[in-house]
C-alpha cells in the first residue's frame, strides 16, 4: 500500500467493465400446418390361438417313501398330490419262551383190594 508524504494512506478507485446482453425475439416468417386424415377400408386376415386345459384327477392310493417329482407323459403334465398319514402299527415282539418238559416216573405202590372175575362154562346137553 502506498502512502503520501505525510504517511497518510492514499485512496484510488478500482473499476471493472461488465457486458450486458439483451435478446429480442424477431419474427422472420410464419408456418401453417394442416393435417388431413384419409380413411380406407381394408380386409385383414388374422388368426387367433386358443388353448384349453383338461384336468383329470386319477386316484392312486399307494404309499411312497418320498414325494414324487412332477413329470411329463407326452403333452400331459402329471402333478403328484401327497398326504401325510399317521400309521399306527401293531407288531409282535417275542419276549421269552417257556419250555415245558413232561417226564413220567413210576413209583412202587401196594394196595389190597377185591377183584372180581367171572368164568363162563359152556356144557353140551344131549337129548335122548
Low-confidence runs: none
Radius of gyration: 66 Å
Largest sheet: 2 strands, antiparallel
Please give the alpha-carbon distance between the first and last residues: 207 Å
Can you offer a commentary on this structure?
The protein has 128 residues and is mostly loops. Helices cover 0% and strands 5% of the residues. It contains no helices and two strands. It has strands at 71-73, 76-78. Strands 1-2 form a two-stranded antiparallel ribbon. A hairpin with a 2-residue loop joins strand 1 and strand 2 (76-78). The protein is elongated. It starts with 70 loop residues before the first strand and ends in a 50-residue tail after the last strand. The model has no long low-confidence stretch (mean pLDDT 83).
What are the salient characteristics of this protein?
128 residues; little secondary structure; elongated
Task: Write the topology of this structure.
Elements: E1 71-73, E2 76-78
Antiparallel strand pairs: 1-2
Quick summary of this structure?
This protein has 128 residues and is largely without helices or strands. 0% of the residues lie in helices and 5% in strands.
Amino acid at each position: 500500500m502506498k502512502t503520501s508524504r505525510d504517511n497518510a494512506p492514499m485512496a484510488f478507485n478500482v473499476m471493472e467493465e461488465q457486458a450486458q446482453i439483451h435478446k429480442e425475439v424477431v419474427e422472420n416468417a410464419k408456418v401453417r400446418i394442416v393435417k388431413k386424415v384419409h380413411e380406407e377400408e381394408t380386409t385383414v386376415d388374422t388368426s387367433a390361438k386358443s388353448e384349453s386345459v383338461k384336468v383329470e384327477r386319477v386316484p392312486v392310493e399307494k404309499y411312497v417313501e418320498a414325494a414324487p417329482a412332477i413329470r411329463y407323459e407326452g403333452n400331459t403334465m402329471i402333478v403328484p398330490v401327497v398326504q401325510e398319514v399317521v400309521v399306527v402299527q401293531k407288531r409282535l415282539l417275542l419276549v421269552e419262551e417257556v419250555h415245558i418238559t413232561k417226564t413220567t416216573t413210576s413209583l412202587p405202590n401196594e394196595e389190597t383190594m377185591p377183584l372180581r372175575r367171572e368164568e363162563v362154562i359152556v356144557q353140551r346137553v344131549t337129548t335122548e
